[in-house]
Amino acid sequence: MRHGVRVGVDVGKARIGVAKSDPYGMLATPVATVPRGDGDIRAILAEVTQLEAVEIVVGLPIALSGGETPSTQDARDFAAQLAAASAIPVRMVDERLSTVSAQRALHASGRNTKNSRSIIDQVAAVIILQHALDFERSGETPPGVIVDQHEGH
Fold first, then answer.
1. The CATH number of 6-141 is which of 1.10.10.10, 3.30.200.20, 2.60.40.10, 3.30.420.140?
2. Which of 13, 38, 56, 113 would be a feasible disulfide site paired with 90, CB 3.0-4.6 Å?
3. Helix, strand or coil for residue 93?
């Protein structure tokens, strides 16, 4: 397992959930919810810098069938912008069911979706990052695909 903090990102149309790992890549925890729009990339990169992260993991929304969803290209474009603006690698990982899992986890803890929207984004980012960490630990292979830093230009 590679050493260093990773930042997980769940890209939504209105909000972006952000999570972080410990330096040993064992556990993902929530960090923030960033409003989507002007300054969102800058806000995420400020978190990345503050946490001294070694990698950014962005969720790639794929349909259960394996095909693309309307959000797939949006997430790719966002990841490309992050990669272009960042000095550290950006990696995209399959995020199937992360938001659904986040909603279920919050519902099971007694919270309703309406009052938990910003938290759902953070929990989804935690789920995305935790899956990536678990995948790497199980096979010693980094998860997903590195985003080309020149795509976002």
1. 3.30.420.140
2. 56
3. strand
Question: Nearest 5°: CA angle at 24, between 122 and 76?
Answer: 45
- Rounded-to-integer distance, Cα 121 and Cα 57, Å: 14
Helical spans, DSSP H, in the chain: 40-50, 70-85, 98-108, 117-139
pTM score: 0.87
Domain ranges of the chain: 6-141
> For residue 121, is it left (φ>0), alpha (ψ between -120 and 50) or beta?
alpha
The string of pLDDT tens digits covering residues 136-145 is: 999 878 888 9
Residue type, 127: I
β-partners of residue 32 are 18
Residue with tokens 């938001």: 99
Q: How many other C-beta atoms lie within 10 A of the C-beta of residue 29? A: 14
DSSP type of residue 80? H
